[in-house]
Design brief:
Layout (H helix, E strand, L loop, with lengths): L2 H8 L1 H7 L5 E5 L4 E6 L10 E10 L2 E2 L4 E6 L6 E3 L2 E2 L5 E7 L5 E2 L2 E10 L2 E10 L6 E7 L4 E2 L4 E10 L2 E2 L4 E7 L4 E4 L1 E5 L2 E7 L8 E11 L2 E11 L2 E10 L3 E10 L9 E6 L10 E6 L5 E7 L5 E10 L2 E10 L18 E4 L3 E2 L2 E11 L2 E2 L4 E9 L5 E9 L5 E8 L5 E9 L7 E2 L4 E12 L4 E2 L4 E3 L10 E8 L3 E9 L24 E3 L2 E8 L8 E11 L2 E9 L24 H14 L2 H4 L5
Parallel strand pairs: 13-21, 30-38, 39-46
Antiparallel strand pairs: 1-11, 2-3, 3-4, 3-8, 5-6, 5-10, 7-8, 9-10, 10-11, 12-14, 14-15, 14-19, 16-17, 16-20, 18-19, 20-21, 22-23, 23-26, 24-25, 24-27, 27-28, 29-31, 31-32, 31-35, 33-34, 33-36, 36-38, 37-38, 40-41, 41-44, 42-43, 42-45, 45-46
Helix pairs in contact: 1-3
Length: 608
Amino acid sequence: MNLGTKLGLMIVGVLLLILLSAPTAMGYGGEPTKSIILVPEGDYEVGSTVNIETHLFEKAVYKNADDINVTIGSWPNQRHIDAVASGTTGIYDVDFTIQANDTYNGYVSVRIETTIGNLTAVEYINIQVEHDVDIDVMVEVLSGMVQGKNDTFEAQVTVKKDGTLTDASDIEGYVEGDTYWQDINGTWQSTGTYLFEWTAPANLTNLGSFQFGVDVNVTDDWGYGWTEFTVREIEAWIHKANITTSNAGIKIYVVDKDGKPVSGATVDVTHDHDGNYSTLAILTSKTTNADGVATFDLNHDDLATITGMILITSGGLYHTIDLHVDLKNVPDTMEDPEPWGSWFQVEAYDEDLKKGSNTVDFIAFNNSASFNNTDIYYYFTQAGSPTHTIIKYGKATTDGEGKFSVTFSVATAKGMVYGYFHAATGIAGTYDDSNDGLTYDSDTAYFWFDHEAEKSSKISISTSGTKIEIGKALALNVKVPTQGMLFVVMVPQGVSLDDINTIGADILWQLILPDPIYVEMGTSTVTVMLPSFLPNNAKFIFFAMSWDDDGQYYNFLEIKPGQSGGTGGGGGDGDDDDDDDGGIPGFEALFFVAAIGISLAAIEYRRR
């Protein structure tokens, strides 16, 4: 798995935002039809003219519609627009001017329903509408990201209108948890600048992830800012120990909010041991010793990973973390992709694309068995290049193992490629095509480009002259050009990033942070706890990444206890060390460590 894939996994939440503009389809009466809407990319606002093309297929062949209906806007402000045949079979033009009543939450919704015979395809697409006034709300955390009960969360909020600091007509803040909500008021500091403070109540019971958000009104123009922080009195870390073909030895380290070991804490580990989710997971319970450590030997069959959940309770407090332990070196290219469920699916062997020609290998499943010697109708579109574009469509036939390949070319490595697949599956409950007497179903796939991550000076990390010390909290200043994440990895002294792929699991901590810290655009103050059980003869890698439509960017600070410094490594003690300078191979290894330490659920970039 290369760096682009790992970054792609990490930004799965960001992809959800991209999908707002991705074509999605529903079928009624049969699935052999496919309608694809193509919208030129650009900045749209009320008064803008939108020129849409909709392409209609039946079994990968362009077909004219017997009927086509287009609806603009959201209920109750919906209106109908005429679709005009372009003169080319199956292609229709839909042109309209955006009206104020068409927009909802910053988007215009377009619904196109096309009918061929008794088959109907319904397609939706959302077009983002820019407002002529830009309200930018930035949240900077002043108190650090990890808090305990009775501690105070402090954030500075700045409000800009069209790039200039501006006082808000109204500004409202709040703190939200799983079962908690509290409105908080800000204090005006200077033009466009406000201070918000919230103290975690002593009787707060549901600890964990919290969100601070602020809604801003500037003369009837609205903006919103937010950040996440954590309220916990206990923290936990996983350390892989002796891994065999039948046992996974792991250690769970539990500390309090000051980084001191917690003894007598109950640690419950529930893990899947055989890869069969119809069988019960195994629950093992241990108690931490005086060093705050609970040691487990988790029995398992011949698995590639062990997954599960860890629950830590101490004095009425609790904390949960995901369990995800790699047991093997999984090959970059899957030799036998496994289906995710009992329905028609198409999976790709390699989903990293590049500019130019690409051949992607697929395997099709039906009821979790390979779908052999079957016709698969496919459609590939690309968004952001600079329009939604159909780059390939046609029919492929699977071989005796359900495999097939498609070759297509992309003009630019910007945006996403979406694949749509139809096949006669025979699965009960799907729609029948009375034209051929077969039953069809569909699947969708998304592909990202193999962007090589770029080291960027736009990202910076600094200790502000403070030397790092084991067992103490460390305040970091983290600056990112867009939203981003901060990881902390510890490696033994004398080990470079390039060594991470080859050294043993016994001496590797997966991650120092139980979860990544999300940082908003701009500069944030982030507090990182370095627990007392960590060795002093280690190096710490503070790694920040961010992303935009064109790629992923990173920078890092590699430093040792007793040192202080800024982005790029080195330290304040004048030592000549073997710190890696941030070459891409090392960071492939770093993302390997991050990938095994965090589940997709923990990485999802959450937005309100």
